[in-house]
Structure prediction request, 613 residues.
Amino acid sequence: MKKFPPLQRRRRGQVALLLTALMMGILVAAFFRAQVLRSSTWSLQSDSNRLRLLTLPAPRGTIFDRNGLIVADNVPAYSISLLPAPRDSIAASLQRMREYLPISDARVEQLMATFGRYSRQPLLVTSDAAFEHVAALEERRADFPGLFMEMRPKRRYYGGEAMGHVMGHVGEVSARELETERFRDYSRGMVVGKDGLERSYEEDLQGSQGIRFVEVDAVGRIVGAFEGESSEDPEPGADLQLHLDMELMEWIHAIFPQGMRGALVALDVEEGGVLALYSNPSFDPNDFVGGIDTEAWQRLNEDPDRPLFNRAVLGLYPPASTWKLATAAIALDLGVVDAEGHMPIACTGGLNWGNRYWRCWNPRGHGSLNLVEALRDSCNVYFYQLGLRVGLERMLNEATRLGFSNECGVDLPRESRGIFPAGLDFWEREFGYRANESEVLSLSIGQGPNSQTPLKMAQFYLGLARGGSAPAPQLARTESALPEAWTMDLTSENVEWLLEGLRMVVRPGGTAFMSSLEHFDLMGKTGTAQNSDDPETPHAWFAGMAGPWGGDPEIVVVAIVEAGESGSAVAAPLAAKAADFYLRRKHGIPVDTIQTLREHYQAGRPAPWAGRQ
Prediction:
């Protein structure tokens, strides 16, 4: 063995000692960094391995009607979710779960597609599981890694089908909705309003979700709960107060002609709010809670009567003779007619104008009439001449100003725009010819290119009942008064002439005579509108108002019954009974004595209006 000099050996020992110290320093630094500097990181990593973050849904706000009755609230329900796991594990859990929970093939496919988009979030299998299904899964919890079951608030609707269209329904937020600006701050699995008031006031009703942690073992099974400082309780959504009268809605649903389609709208004259907004046929919003069955959804969509279609705000119908009030009001507003004066040409069954003969609905004619008499008899010849006095261009301008070519502005997600020419170019654009003055004759009696929703006609009659102005109809009640949507420069005298004409319609000789009320003054206008689907069976209209004898109107009511044939025989009695029910309750008169005028006479009683002004 080679021997090194003492000095060289000493130097080699010092180098080895230095290298050893350096290595020890590196190790100490590494340990210090791992155990001290990064201790919080490893702690978080450890927590992330054993803890799972879950959201806690907030109860939606309670909805009340105008009388304080609950329209929609929440009840406890069971939800079932699967925590994030490999795709094969999720698929296997869903297949095993089908033995104890009814899950269709389509639902499994939907859940797997959702998991593919949001694999790092808990997968909500159902938010409305039956107790027996929850119990069966709870007994076999060891077989389902990542299974999480909890109590959640579940929406409950009162009124059933009577309230379906106005309330809308709720459902799980869709992937498409999550991509929109409105739902930017929402997360998958949240329940949102899909239609109706639930949709319009989603942000107010939703509330704020809470969060909680659950502890899991190495295979993802929940072994306990962990309440850390980051846990937050959910905040319930705000309550919503409505103008709507739920009992009136239920009454309308009960008396609507069985098997017939149509709508009824009622507005409060004083506040302008919506008392009733009913469409028939309807649906029960409770069927949508927790997710509607695929077959039930298909039945609703394929039903030829279209129960999901809200005819009150989406249905467009020719207004027929109910429009004659608009012609009369525009003429009075412009000052082109004297309500007490007679037209130059008396009605003999029709009118020659231009190159054609314009017929009245009564071939025997009505003779010479003033405005009130023309409204009572619904004389076409009088209104032909009235339309000519107004003129086509002024008729278009005034009707457009009153909103007949636009929406009403009701607080619902969808509303149809009225069809009415906004200018003379309408005919050339739509039909390829230049309009002439004869077009005003059709428009003046509610025919021609004129289709309106029941809500729009109710808003116009509300303006008459309020003396010449009307707000946009609203369902939700606010502390401030509703702003006026349009106004007419009608004198109080002219308004009284119009109301007297409506009143005469419900007097002997009027078209709605048999719909008179015993305790209240009903006034209105019937209409028989062309039905494009079946010209032999026209639509039946009634638009009017009612209030105490000798007082101001308190409720406006408009009814349409598709293929009802006669406004006086079908729509008017429906509207009259709705108004009677509301006013009886308001003025403390029993509602169990509501009857038809025919029954009133058969009981030997005097005319309801006898001796009253």
Observations:
- The two ends are 139 Å apart (CA to CA).
- The mean pLDDT is 87.
- The first helix runs from residue 6 to 37.
